[in-house]
């Protein structure tokens, strides 16, 4: 997912593999307190602020990471998917 986000112009600050893959595979850290939480077939764009998580964009049954990354790039640019 980190690679797909970078391909569509989203600045990736880092990637962390989940310590508990039962719930998610990992997290991609972006600018401005944004994060993409990644599971085996889902991803969500989150705003992490003061230990609270606000889910901004979610997609299930992902088969194409670039399609979700494109939605994230659009959301960041326009403030909506």
SSE arrangement:
Layout: H1 2-7, E1 12-17, E2 26-30, E3 34-38, E4 42-49, E5 52-60, H2 65-78
Antiparallel strand pairs: 1-2, 2-3, 3-4, 4-5
Provide a descriptive summary of the structure in words:
- There is one protein chain.
- With 81 residues, the chain is α+β, with helices and mostly antiparallel strands.
- It contains 2 helices and 5 strands.
- A 5-stranded antiparallel beta sheet has the order 1-2-3-4-5.
- A hairpin with a 3-residue loop joins β3 and β4.
- It is globular and about 30 Å long.
- The two termini are 17 Å apart.
- The mean pLDDT is 89.
CA radius of gyration is: 12 Å
Determine the N-to-C terminus distance.
Answer: 17 Å
Low-confidence stretches: none
Number of distinct beta strands? 5
Task: Give a brief description.
This protein is α+β, with helices and mostly antiparallel strands and 81 residues long. Helix content is 25%, strand content 41%. Strands 1-2-3-4-5 form a five-stranded antiparallel sheet.
Descriptive terms for the model:
81 residues, five-stranded antiparallel beta sheet, alpha+beta, 2 helices, globular, single chain
């Amino acid at each position: 997912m980190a690679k797909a986000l970078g391909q569509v112009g989203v600045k990736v600050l880092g990637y962390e593999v989940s310590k508990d893959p039962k719930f998610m595979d990992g997290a991609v850290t972006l600018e401005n307190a944004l994060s993409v939480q990644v599971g085996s077939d889902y991803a969500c764009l989150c705003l992490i602020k003061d230990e609270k998580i606000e889910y901004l964009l979610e997609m299930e049954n992902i088969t194409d990471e670039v399609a979700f990354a494109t939605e994230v790039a659009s959301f960041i640019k326009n403030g909506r998917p």
